[in-house]
Amino acid sequence: IRSITQNGQTYPDEISLDGKTYKTDEWTNVPSYILDLTQRRLHQNPDHPIGILRDLVEQNMKGMGYTFYNDFKPGVTTYQNFDVLGFPQDHVGRSRSDTYYINKDNLLRTHTSAHEHECFRECKTPGYIISADVYRKDEIDRTHYPAFHQMEGARLWSKNSGNLEEIIAKDIEDIPKTNIIVEDPFRENCFSAENPKQDYMTDKEVQLVSTHLKKTVEYLVNQVFEAARKSAKLAGSTEPYLNEPLKIRWVEAYFPWTAPSWEIEVWWKGEWLECCGSGLVRQQVLLNAGLGEDKLGWAFGIGLDRIAMLLFGIPDIRLFWSLDERFSKQFTNGHISTFVPYSKYPGIKRDISFWLPKGVSLHDNEVMEVVRSHAGDLTESVVNIDEFIHPKTGKKSQTYRLNYQSMDRNLTNVHINELHSRVEEDLKKFFDVEIR
Ligand code: FA5
Ligand code: MG
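# magnesium ion complex -> structure
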């Protein structure tokens, strides 16, 4: 089955972004409404929930040897985002259905790890913390949006700077203690055949550096959730979870540029929430950045939006991007307050069903992209509800349920019918589908 990734959209000959001009090519797939989001810089707004959360973490990490970088622009090279981190050529993350390309060699960063290379080169302190907006072609619903925010941390030591084991052990002592309940089957046996260590580090070094990493992330998560409890209690909430200690667990993970690797999940109102990937930085990444063979350390990347949703009681990730004052007026620097919903307008549902040409299948992300290009933030969700192959013709049928909804106004059937027919027209034009 051939999968269509070219959606036939037309793009300008040149794209300008943050003072640079790029020639577009056959890789270009970044729509103008996504380029507009790159100028919002929500993490730099001190009165926006994302900015408030960033600030809270920075306040808590101050004086611990980290440099804070908040100003990296979202346009990076394919080399920075993938190659230098050791992503294999056929990694799914590189595909045009997952990543927004400006052209073949430039893209919108898909993670803050895209800046590890330059930070390892430039940073003068033992560690750094980067905060930034990142972009992925993804499904859209209450917890997924094509733009979100990450905070990346890293910390290095040198094997040549005295008794390394003693130094790291002391650095671990300096991390403030927490009351977190930790589930970590990998604390002592922190590497295995499935999650291997790197040869250039001793077992003891792996043990110490990973303990430092995990305690740092636990401290950070603890500070954030403690602040959330405090504010909920101040607001008069008596929910029982406010008095229970925070529970987290570590699970094994894989990232091309770290080994061994883990993710931390936080237990919150009856669910494990994935919130941060991490690991010990691969030596090749450090060597690529011009660092010596004596260097070793860790990195983590934490998603800010879902945590901010919990902290501020924000029910829908798209609200972060709202320009409505009823949203923005509710938040001020230094305060974790609970979002007070304002009237939500009813949504309008439309189903769309089509036959694809024989042997062809269409990626869900491409359908979402077409819907979003016409309906923008009125797209509440696009869900693949059915697909099957006709036994006689061999053609595939796909059905999607489109939910249109506005955060701040009433939608009319006339308006939605018009948007919806443009979606149908584009699907016909770009993918040669036959609407059923
Ligand atoms: C990464 O992006 C790695 N760069 C993290 C990392 C850094 C690993 C340094 C090792 C060393 P991942 O794709 O899992 O990993 O995303 C990290 C976090 O971002 C997730 O745990 C989640 O909290 C958040 N995240 C990922 N996708 C989305 C999304 N579509 N919407 C909101 N948050 C997301
Ligand atoms: Mg993940």
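# post-check
Confidence is low (pLDDT under 50) at residues 1-6.
The first strand starts at residue 2 and ends at 4.
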